[in-house]
Specification:
This protein is 53% helix and 12% strand. The chain is α/β, with parallel strands linked by helices. It is globular.
């Protein structure tokens, strides 16, 4: 379910160009989002997100100190519930795959219209994968390659608990809801999901749900 108008979405804006960064922050605020802060490099972004806990991080891929993919990886390692939406000038294949591989929820190029960016932030906050038209096919093609790969090797073995968590993820439960149902800590659920992603060679929750559905785990 999309957050409603009375449930403002917290967004952090990370970009090394001050004019673009501040302008986007103003546009997000005008559209009803809550901008929790802005950052000009990866280190600032990590500190900002840790302090303000936004729901979505709007992230430029090319930062002066850390690659955007590495920032994404570190953000999600600290809090897997954060949604990272990359907004980059680059639409290069490797940049897109690096971002998705690190766990980004979506990837837009900066030529996107403002209304497209605002809609993408709301969709990312709801857990949807969002991509600039033309890039979705690239990501799906890579996903299909990963899904087909296990046919050539032994299927990865999940523990009973990992399978149980995966089934609940596929049903659409949040990590917190899964933790309550299974009497586990939120962090333990996150660890089970991350271990499952690693074993299945998948990159994010959207791919994990698709895998679970294909395996009949819903």
């Amino acid at each position: 379910m999309y957050p409603g108008p009375d449930d403002p979405i917290g967004v952090a804006v990370v970009d090394d160009h001050p004019i673009w960064r501040d302008g986007m922050a103003e546009k997000l605020t005008a559209a009803g989002f809550t901008v929790t802060g802005t950052a000009g490099d990866g280190a600032q972004a990590l500190r900002l997100v840790r302090a303000t806990r936004p729901r979505v991080v709007l992230l430029d891929l090319h930062l002066p100190d850390l690659p955007g993919a590495e920032v994404t990886r570190r953000l999600l390692a600290a809090d897997a519930s954060i949604r990272v939406l990359v907004l980059s000038a680059s639409g290069e294949r490797q940049d897109v795959l690096d971002a998705v591989g690190a766990g980004a929820t979506g990837y837009l190029v900066k030529s996107a219209r403002l209304d497209e960016v605002l809609a993408a932030v709301r969709r990312a906050a709801a857990g949807e994968a969002v991509f600039t038209p033309g890039l979705a096919g690239l990501v799906l093609g890579e996903y299909q390659r990963l899904v087909d790969a296990p046919a050539q090797v032994a299927a990865p073995r999940l523990t009973a608990r990992e399978t149980e968590v995966l089934r609940l993820v596929a049903k659409g439960l949040t990590y917190r809801e899964i933790a309550e149902r299974l009497t586990l800590s939120h962090r333990t659920v996150q660890n089970h999901v991350q271990n499952t992603l690693t074993k299945l060679q998948l990159h994010n929750k959207a791919q994990l749900v698709r895998y679970a559905l294909e395996q009949g785990l819903d």
